[in-house]
């Protein structure tokens, strides 16, 4: 299954992002005085917050399972992560939903609309020029999925047998299928892709494991036969040069990785059935 990033091990890996638009809030430097907050463990310097008593988190509004609205509340993997960081700072989390472009461009952080951006942000060199990133917190993978356990049992077997492997156009699954030499059948959307798998239109599907987890809820017979790592990592973004906030975020990531909280969060939001 997809896993928390092994930030202290040999390698770094992780996942993606999308778009959304709603109202933006959270005080700016002009109308809200920043107030230092000291992490509860005293492990790092005081951090300045956009709104006193709150860690303001920017995210897009609908990118499950990382962030989405349920019952009038923003929930998801990223929201749980934000609450852990806020708790370690001794404050509450406040979510601000914005268009993804304003988040990934660094504009939301630079204009003090939020303290951190947690929105399935892939860590890239281009983004590093406008924001600073925490250690990765999630490793993204693609998975080869069959309808039941008796299908083709590996990516190598799918290539050797040239079985029909469904992919969604414009996704990492399509890119990986091409690089892996698979007989890829393209679909325009995830619904038709996974319907084709369940009705025998394709023999397997290669897709992002987070997408697989979403559709596996509708068909519990879907089984991940094999996963492959991607050179794609998710990180928490802070304003460029905000060393105190970055230190506080990394301290929380260390804690939740060591005590198992991060693994539990990932398993809650991205459950997949893997072959035994």
From TrEMBL:
InterPro entries: SBP_3_CS, Solute-binding_3/MltF_N. Belongs to the bacterial solute-binding protein 3 family. It is found in: Cell envelope. Residues 54-273 form the Solute-binding protein family 3/N-terminal domain. Keywords: Signal. GO terms for cellular component: cell envelope. It comes from the Bacteria. Residues 1-29 form the signal peptide. The keyword Ribosomal protein does not apply. This is Basic amino acid ABC transporter substrate-binding protein. Its main location: other.
